[in-house]
Each structure stands twice: as C-alpha cells, then as structure tokens.
Specification:
It is a single chain. This protein is of the alpha/beta class and 398 residues long. It has 13 helices and 15 strands. It has 2 domains: 15-44 and 298-397, Aspartate Aminotransferase, domain 1 (Alpha-Beta Complex); 52-294, Type I PLP-dependent aspartate aminotransferase-like (Major domain) (Aspartate Aminotransferase, domain 2, 3-Layer(aba) Sandwich), CATH 3.40.640.10. Strands 2-8-7-6-5-3-4 form a 7-stranded mixed sheet, sandwiched between helices. Strands 11-12-15-14 form a 4-stranded antiparallel sheet. The protein has a two-stranded parallel ribbon with strand order 1-13. Helix 4 (108-114) runs parallel beside helix 5 and helix 11 (296-322) runs parallel beside helix 13. It is globular and about 60 Å long. The chain starts with 16 loop residues before the first helix and ends with a helix. Bound molecules: D-malate (MLT).
Amino acid sequence: MRIKINENFGNIKESYLFSDIASRVKAYEASNPDAKIIRMGIGDVTLPLPEPVVSALHKASDEMGKKESFRGYPPEYGYAFLRDSISTHYAVLGVSVDPSSIFVSDGAKSDLGNIVDILGDNQIVIPDPVYPVYVDSNIMSGHNITFINGNRDNGFLPSPSELSDKNIDGAVIYLCSPNNPTGAAYDRNGLSEWVDFAMKTGSLIIYDSAYEAFISDDNIPHTIYEIPDAYECAVEICSFSKFAGFTGLRCGWTVIPSTVKAGGHELSALWKRRQATKFNGVSYPVQRAAEAALTDEGIKALNANIEYYKKNASLIAKLLDSKSIFYTGGKNSPYIWLECPGGQNSWDFFDRLLHEAQIVGTPGEGFGKGGESYFRLTAFGSYEATLEAVERLEALLG
Ligand code: MLT
C-alpha cells in the first residue's frame, strides 16, 4: 500500500507495558507449567461485584428484553440518572459539580487517551514515573513532553518548583493522585500549589482521580474541586473500575466545568462535539449498575471491598517496614512502590521475583525513567494470595 501511517507510533514502545508483562509471564508458564504464580502486576480487581450492583444489572437486562422498557442508543454523555448520581457523589465529598459537566464513558483510560483530540499542540507536562497512557497518547499525537521527576527526595510528589527553570506558558499538566504507580497522594497544600501554578501560567490540569476511594487521610483531597480555582483550570477524570470493581464492566466519567475555557471556547463544548462524533455511550445495564454502586447500599458494600484490599496493602507494607525497604503508597492507595533491594534494576528484579518466588509485579521502568530502580506491587489479590506472596518475599529478601 502507498498510504501514510502515523509515524509518531514509531516513537512509542513497541508494546504496552502490561501486554509486555503478560507475554513474559506466559513464556515462563509455558516452561514451568506447575508453577503457582501470584499475580501482583496489573492493577485489576479480584473481588466479585456486590449484590446491589449485580441485581441492578439483572433488572436492567430484563428491561432490555421487554418491548415497553427496551432502550436503544444511550445518550452520548450518559443517562441523566447516572449523571445525577455522580453529581450527588461529589456533593457528599463536599463540592458542587453540575450534572451537565459530567460525561459518562467506558472508563478513565479511554478519556485520558481521547482528551488529546480536543487540545492543540501545547506544552505537555507529565510527572515521571507515570501511568503510561498520558505519555503514549501525547506521543501518538506528536507532542513534545516535559517530564518532572518524582523521586525519593520529593516523596514521588513533584511540585511546580521542579519547573522553575522552564518557561511554562499555557501547558497541559497531567496529575494523578493517589498516584499510579507510586501510591503517593498530594495533600491539600500540595494540590493547591499546582492549581495556583496552572492559574498563573494559563495552564490546564488533567486530573486523574481513579484511586480516590482509597484515600483515608483527612488532609488528602478526594477531588481537585476541593481547591476552588480548579473550576477554572482543571478537568477531572474518574472511574468505577477500582472503587466499584468495574474493570470488566467498563464505566467512568470526566468532569469539565463550564468555567474551563480556552481559545474562546468552553472545553466542555469541544468534548461534547468529540464524544457525539466518536462515541456512542455506555450500555444501559452498565449505567444502571454504576448508579447502584453509588447508592448507600452500594457504597457500603464497596467500602468493605476497599478495606479488604487495604488490609492486603498493609501486609506488604509491614514486611517492607521490617526489612527497612523504602516505599511509598499502600495507605491511601492499592499500590505499593518499593525501591528494588540491593539497587537492582527493575526488570532484573521482575525476573528474579518471577523465577525465584513466582510473583508477578510491575517493573518501575515501565512507568518511566524515574522508575528504573523501583517496583510496583498491587494489593488487589486475595488475602490468602497476598499472605503467601509476603511469605515468599520474606524468604527471598532474606
Ligand atoms: C494498572 O495496573 O496500572 C492499571 O490497572 C491500568 C489501568 O487502569 O488501565
């Protein structure tokens, strides 16, 4: 063929981090068929959906099978019942988010990747280490990225001061808190610094709050809109995946307040136009299930699941404390980000862990240069598997 392809794809890694890990594990399994592998790599939930969510799914599916309650295409931005429930969820968190600024989608990953469509060729600021979607989707669009370093000194929470030698003017800044992969979370002061910086430099913050439900400390904001100026400079992207166990069902949302404006346009108008053209909405049963997740009953059941995962995280944290291994996360997050013992490179540690302890984790390097000697473990497994992993790790670390 003589067509041209998007040459920017030549600038991203050949395969996506988690696909790469999966194929290494598959190869190991093929030559070690009896190995009892414990998976603590991809942050995928393992507890089943709670009863209120499952019965909402059943009920909505039954409705789809009856003439009088059948529904065709869903609204592109989400059914009013779900946008209202998400708005109420924000009210419970103490902030006001109008349902008209909420856009329901099939998950945070899609929105984080797709938001690039409505933005031009801006300065892009991304912390390193980071969830690879922000980086790859900007490289696919040919954008240059300025990385800011997360490291042991700043607790993997870089602040705008890291940009003091750069001339930032109208940048798109990606933040994730509690962070994937490091589990570190900005407190109110830390997040306010970023909002102030965005206001001062005419920048936009894309705020990924997918792990918000894991926050237990009072001084950590659950939403960027706890900082009032964020209504003018921030888009928030969230997900039902981690808090409600929807990794398989797929549902998330993006908030774009009407007060976020650039180039003479409300960004929400551009997003509406983008979604109406390229997206046909989330299925009715899934939106009913998401609505059920946000009821009092749903939240109660989901909080129990989150506590379960956090108990796993504390098991891992306890082991690392006892071995004096530096780590972040585990408290307001399902992720533990640890320094590879003995200064080992993260892929070498990955291989060692897989071969000697049959544990799969995620090498920090997959999240950027700043992760080269770090490693991520997730607490999303079963309690029994986590306990066994901790025992195996203890034996490995000596
Ligand atoms: C992760 O392991 O980083 C996440 O599961 C990836 C995702 O949410 O897409």
